[in-house]
Amino acid sequence: MIIYTLFSGSSGNCVYVKDKNTEILIDAGKSAGAIEKSLAALNSSLYGIKAIFLTHEHTDHTAGLEIISKKHHVPIHITHPSYKALSSLTYLPSCARRHDIRYEVAVGSLKIRSFEIPHDSNQNVGYVIENEDGEKLGIATDIGHLTEEILSSLTGCNYAIIESNHDTGMVKSGPYPLFLKQRILSDRGHLCNEECARLALHLAKSGVKAIALAHLSRENNTPDKAFSAIKRALDDGGFSKIDLKVASPVISTCICK
Ligand SMILES: [Zn+2]
Ligand SMILES: [Zn+2]
């Protein structure tokens, strides 16, 4: 499996996965032009993408969708509630495949399975993507709080892209208005570094090889803070060999190639 985050964070999210001749994207939260440019640097193109799997309807995950739908006709997979929220704002083609919250789809050599993630959208899902060799990638961002379903869904993943959104102290002492602070810290907001460390340790115990920290807040976190919080937890647990990195907000970050 070849795995890259193309963009990550509140300014846009997109993950590229390639296995044999199958190429898919998870989310399309930048303009179609920006995504096309990132794909070109990886010798790929939107014309080669077989499907896009959306996590939820927020703009940082869907900004490029309208143009991609109209121009490139890539099949889009989305849950019913997110489709409803999005279709009132954005053009979505009738070929959008609408699903119940927990669904499984095969695309080429990949099997994609969704699971529920609590968040302040109509609905939010994470994905486990598996190839025919049994290699598994788990993706979970925009996590209000960790649930048994998230932990069990990600168990056994070889690679993981997980949210490490904020440092709780920075949120509390930062410049955001109170309602926004409450939103971020609520159990339907985003995941703090400490809870991400708990998730990383869980993944480590079930054999993960590489972890990318994703969806970092620009205002309420720093790459150093996120990295050191999770690295410390992994080192303390005896998992210092795991390949840990922070996904860049603006340039492609290689998770596996
Ligand atoms: Zn969101
Ligand atoms: Zn988001």
Keywords:
30% helix, 9 helices, 257 residues, binds zinc ion, alpha/beta, 26% strand, Metallo-beta-lactamase, Chain A, single chain, seven-stranded mixed sheet
Structural description of this entry:
By secondary structure, the protein is α/β, with parallel strands linked by helices. It is 30% helix and 26% strand. The strands form two sheets. A seven-stranded mixed sheet has the order 6-5-4-3-2-1-14. The chain has a seven-stranded mixed sheet with strand order 7-8-9-10-11-12-13. Helix 4 links the parallel strand 5 and strand 6 (97-99). Helix 8 (193-205) packs parallel to helix 9. The N and C termini lie close together (7 Å). Bound molecules: zinc ion (2 copies). One zinc ion is lined by residues 56, 58, 119, 121, 142.
What is the 3D shape? globular
Taken as a percent bin, the fraction of beta residues is 25-35%
Number of helices: 9
CATH-derived architecture? 4-Layer Sandwich
Radius of gyration: 17 Å
The distinct bound ligands, ions and cofactors come out as:
zinc ion
Output the CATH topology: Metallo-beta-lactamase, Chain A
Number of DSSP strand runs: 14
- Helix/strand-derived class? alpha/beta
CATH superfamily: Ribonuclease Z/Hydroxyacylglutathione hydrolase-like
Instruction: Note the gap between the termini.
Output: 7 Å
Strand order of the largest sheet: 6-5-4-3-2-1-14
